[in-house]
Amino acid sequence: MNIFNKITLKMIILIGSEKGGVGKSTLATNLATALALKGSDVILVDADRQSTSANWSQDRKETEKQKIQCVRQYGDIEETIADLNKRYQYVLVDCQGRDGKELRSGLMIADLLIIPSRPSQPDLDTVPVILDSVSFAARVNKSLKVCCVLTMTPNNPKITEAEDSKIFLEKFTNVKVLKTTIGDRKTYRDAISEGVSVLEKNDAKASLEIKNLLEEILNYGEN
Known about the structure:
Shape: globular
Strand content: 15-25%
Distance between the termini: 11 Å
Structural class: alpha/beta
């Protein structure tokens, strides 16, 4: 399926982790932009009190780029997400970096949870904590799917941290380990501080990562 010619899914995508600093907001803002640039009706929900996604959206209003709608919502976010899902094709939720009320309530209605993790053992060790919350939510939300994406991966092909991390994660049967990885690139940090996406900057490698990630996510969500 070529998602850049035809995007027909309707999804609630939750991005959450047990650990901060793993690139949740980077994924949320870039995926939202990728969808919007291709004509999808998308909204960001910033459920992290650090407000990175909301601040990015505000900064974006000062640019000439296509606007991305964003709302802040904390605590029990299930009702808000359900309402937004009636009006938007894609609802992307940027949760805080811990197992809190936002994550637990969001899991009750999400179609897909994306767990970002850096390729380090301390980060990987937090994945089972999130999966415990997933197991609880899945008793109610039977359609919930879960995937994990490695972020801030080394760009040196001689460093095998990413592949070693995938092997570690594949032992968890209730999570899909995505093939696409997000490299440790300065352009991601620059983009989020400028209110733009790497898709709008002159970085072919980062742009390809986001395009490949979106295609993999949507294919997984459809099947």
